Amino acid sequence: MAKEKKQPRPKAEPPKGFRDYFGAEVTERADMLARIAEVYRAHGFDPLETSAVETVEALGKFLPDVDRPNEGVFAWQEDDDGKWLALRYDMTAPLARVAAQFRNDLPAPYRRYTMGPVWRNEKPGPGRFRQFYQCDADTVGAPSVAADAEICGMLADALEAVGIDRGDYIVRVNNRKVLNGVMEVAGVLDPSDPTKFEAERGTVLRAIDKFDKFGEAGVRALMGKGRMDESGDFTKGAGLTDEQADIVMGFMEAKRDTGAATAARLRELVGGSALGLEGVDELETIAALLESQGYGPDRIVIDPSVVRGLGYYTGPVFEAELTFEILDEKGRARQFGSVAGGGRYDDLVKRFTGQAVPATGVSIGVDRLLAALRAKGRLEGRMAGPVVVTVMDRERMGDYMAMASELRAAGIRAEVYLGNPKNFGNQLKYADKRESPVAIIQGADEAERGVLQIKDLILGAKIAASASVEEWKSQPAQFEVSRGDLVAKVQELLARYAG
Amino acid sequence: MAKEKKQPRPKAEPPKGFRDYFGAEVTERADMLARIAEVYRAHGFDPLETSAVETVEALGKFLPDVDRPNEGVFAWQEDDDGKWLALRYDMTAPLARVAAQFRNDLPAPYRRYTMGPVWRNEKPGPGRFRQFYQCDADTVGAPSVAADAEICGMLADALEAVGIDRGDYIVRVNNRKVLNGVMEVAGVLDPSDPTKFEAERGTVLRAIDKFDKFGEAGVRALMGKGRMDESGDFTKGAGLTDEQADIVMGFMEAKRDTGAATAARLRELVGGSALGLEGVDELETIAALLESQGYGPDRIVIDPSVVRGLGYYTGPVFEAELTFEILDEKGRARQFGSVAGGGRYDDLVKRFTGQAVPATGVSIGVDRLLAALRAKGRLEGRMAGPVVVTVMDRERMGDYMAMASELRAAGIRAEVYLGNPKNFGNQLKYADKRESPVAIIQGADEAERGVLQIKDLILGAKIAASASVEEWKSQPAQFEVSRGDLVAKVQELLARYAG
Question: Where does L-histidine bind (chains A, B) (predicted)?
Fold first, then answer.
């Protein structure tokens, strides 16, 4: 290494908005993603892993979400040619690049899934990180809404595969075309010039998307002149008249008891709009395709209140919501809410090739789904602590390592204490920190007699916490076994707690 | 979306030096890493996933490898405070940061493994990428060489777990202290001032590390005045005299038939160097600990020719080499070579806390190990193509999707063709591209009769390639079954090819 310079010590912390994941946090996520991948694979989706870095040119630099125009990417310039590179901010932009780049080699349609981190150069906040996981599945090159139906069904299957019970989730499906038909009726969409009223429609979309949060009055204010929040901040509205807003609100409230009844109501609302009618037809087709596969309304429903904020959706949109209640930070019961969403976006690949390629897909919010599984108690005990072989005689390290080896050969997680063995209490504290079920102890005297001590740390902890002297006597937390019985006795003990 | 601007189309390609991974490339790597993780976990190592982004301050900005001082990291400045952030270039620097940051919370010693991408701002070349996977296991806070021995044994276990047979690999262990003892004897290390001759020792280390490539003459040239390569490029040498070089070369050639004989030879070579003798003792301890766990010299050996290039190693160093031959690009047989390496580095955490914390670890070259498994034929057939349900009647999409659903419910990967169904030939071409074993076909007439056609695409391909007319007749590649027998018949067919 170069000569030591007198520099201030670096701070031992990650950049703000970044964090580390330890132990079970890593394995639980990996397990969950593996289960999802299995469902995706069963549906014929192939894995894809793109590079984390893209050219800013290919990425389009900013998030395509009109809701958050100021949020950016982490970007830097290449040393040699000055080209701007950036970390991907989602999985859709890289998919568009791959679909364009490999269009002659990939199967058409191309079904792919991908899972991995994305990065956003946003202001971090509590529980809001600048690196997080996404898990996406998309079908590129399939114009038929059968592709959308497939993804909705697959999403329901994936949720059940990771441990969300039927009845604890609902996948809601809507169609942007129906909404656009309603906008046409309301006079804020001109089919002969789709760019007209674009900003107004964006504002309406975002307003509808906030129905749960702001209620009808808030949404109406945002569709009209604008809305003042509690802090006094004013959000400019779309400028719709009350009559126009009535039409849009009618759409929001069009959900009926059955998919057929909802479709009939929507058909009334879109009136003469060709686009709107096309959208209703598509919703009916999706409902029929799902029914033919046995996905009932307890799993997937047509629901006009789902709009999804992103401007780029062009047809069906969908959202998976967890319907069970959890307690929020103030102890109030509330529904868990959305964990996945997606829809059809037919124009994304066009940026590269000039050709429109139909695409549809879903993105699962990995951290939210993990939090839901944790709230449901579905993640406990997936990572057991190791058996710790303690060290009584430093010079018999070989014996201790051999014990750990034997345990591992029998499929038991095991390790030797590798710190300074002088203070035996520290070794037991270490075993405690490791959440070890069992400690192995063998002093010189025991080694000579061909025996060792097995310390049941789970029972030990129970006794320390609550048990009476009688229980302690009847079930000793530490006992001597012959050296040759090490593996069998530890297996026996672990089996007792596995049940 | 914003108004369309007339901009040149972006190029559909990743930045240079980056690539995408498709299908089996993704699952094979994931499978291999899962097997390695299982071995690491069995040894008591816990997973850790640090953020991809670190402050440049925490990272130390440049690779700590004196061999490549000009290679850097991908770095950029924060918008608000101007702080420099960068993508991690390895897994060791983030571990050092975590070990310092969480030193009061982590178990001590802390065993951790991690796997994920790292990024290097290097000039890309053929097969040389700027993003690649590393898979590391380290023990922080264990001064005893038992920790090094554990990692060597675990490395051997991991190689066997992923499919490298015993006999096809060897883990070589050496000790930097022995080499430093030899350097002391040769007069290029002054124990009273370790910074003296640092550059010279760096050059000697790199020279030794290239023994396989340059041979004895090349290494001697680099230890002396320098070496001219075939292209005429001159590399400056360490400036050792012939006598000094003799002493170092003697170390390189100290390997004997048994570990004990090698240790005895090394003891002669380090003469009166206290550091050197300590190193030999450590090697003997490691050998004894490995023997007590049954790791024979067919798996792990003491080998003084292993030095590892990195300047920061302070004690034991180790390397896993695959010993089987593969054909190189010119068709010549050559040994596959190194797939993993590591060693003890006791000073890394000190940067943050001022306190020296002993650490030792290993890094597996994920891509090289995958290439080795591929060369050994251990990766074939791990990802089967889906059964493709073809579409004869667009309006009966629900029936086709139900067929795929039933197959999936029976654990069979299956999908419906979602492209334009008009040209049936395209559907079969698609099935071919998907490497489908079976296609399902049902026209209106068949639907009415309650039957469908199963097309055996594997047999079909065989017949197309080679079979005579007789074989074709005796084993039809397409046959009709009752609709109700779909799953059973496909299972039967797949079972035939699974064996």
Answer: 90-92, 120, 134, 138, 308, 312-313
User: Checking phi first, is residue A239 left (phi over 0); if not, alpha (psi -120 to 50) or beta?
Assistant: left
Ordered per-residue pLDDT tens for chain A, 499 residues: 444 555 678 999 999 999 999 999 999 999 999 999 999 999 999 999 999 999 988 887 554 443 433 458 898 888 888 888 999 999 999 999 999 999 999 999 999 999 999 999 988 888 789 999 999 999 999 999 999 999 999 999 999 999 999 999 999 999 999 988 988 888 888 888 888 888 888 888 888 888 878 888 888 988 899 888 888 888 888 888 888 888 888 888 888 888 888 999 999 989 889 999 999 999 999 999 999 999 999 999 999 888 776 667 889 999 999 998 887 777 888 888 899 999 999 877 888 999 889 999 999 999 999 999 988 888 865 568 999 999 999 999 999 999 999 999 999 999 999 999 999 999 999 999 999 999 999 999 999 999 999 999 988 777 777 756 566 556 678 999 999 999 999 999 999 887 5
What does the DSSP assignment read for A438-459?
EEEE--HHHHHHTEEEEEEHHH
* Chain B residues with CB-CB distance to A1 below 8 A: 64, 66, 198, 311-312
Question: Distance from A346 to chain B by nearest Cα, in Å?
Answer: 13
Task: Tell me, yes or no, whether B16 lies in a domain.
Answer: no
B92 known ligand binder: yes
- Contact call for residues B188 and B200 (beta carbons, < 8 A): yes
Residues B319 and B391 in one domain: no
Single residue among A343, A375, A407 that ends a domain in this structure: A375
Q: Complex ipTM, two decimals?
A: 0.89
CATH code where residue A482 lies: 3.40.50.800
| Domain boundaries, position A278 | 24-193+252-262+270-375
- CA distance linking residue A317 with residue A302, whole number of Å: 10
- Distance, in Å, from the CA atom of A28 to the CA atom of B368, rounded to the nearest integer, reads 28
Q: Which residue of A has its CA nearest to B351?
A: A9
Q: Do B54 and A146 touch (CB under 8 A)?
A: no
B375, B409, B434 — which closes off a domain? Answer: B375
Contact B139, B151 (CB under 8 A): yes
Mutation choice for A interface testing from B5, B20, B114, B403 by most A CBs within 10 A? B20
Q: Does residue B484 come out as left (phi exceeding 0), alpha (psi in the -120 to 50 range) or beta?
A: alpha
| A407/A387 Cα distance (integer angstroms) | 8
Name the minimum distance, in Å, from the CA of B453 to any CA of chain A: 20
Residue B18's closest chain A neighbor by CA? A51
Q: Give me the DSSP letters along B440-473.
A: EE--HHHHHHTEEEEEEHHHHHHHHHT--HHHHH
User: Which 8-state DSSP code applies to residue A125?
Assistant: B
Structure tokens at B344: 């003890």
Are the beta carbons of B453 and B441 closer than 8 angstroms?
A: yes
| Cβ within 8 Å, pair A20-B397 | no
Task: Please indicate, yes or no, whether residues A407 and A329 belong to a single structural domain of this protein.
Answer: no
B195/A3 touch (CB, cutoff 8 Å), yes or no? yes
- Residues of chain B contacting residue A117, judged by C-beta atoms under 8 Å apart: 52
CA distance B302 to chain A (A): 17
Residue B345 marked as a ligand binder: no
Q: How far is CA B343 from the centre of its chain?
A: 17
CA dist A445 → A233, A426, A442, A452, A489 (Å): 77, 21, 8, 9, 20
Could you tell me if residue B1 is inside a domain? no
Q: Based on the structure, what is the number of domains in chain B?
A: 2
Q: Which residues contact B135 (CB under 8 A, 6 or more apart)?
A: B33, B36, B113, B114, B115, B363, B364, B366
Q: Which residue among B20, B54, B420 places its CB closest to the CB of A14?
A: B54
Residues A342 and A420 in one domain: no
Asked whether residue A293 falls in the same domain as residue A347, the answer is yes
CA-to-CA dists, residue B247 to B174, B233, B255, B260, angstroms: 17, 27, 14, 21
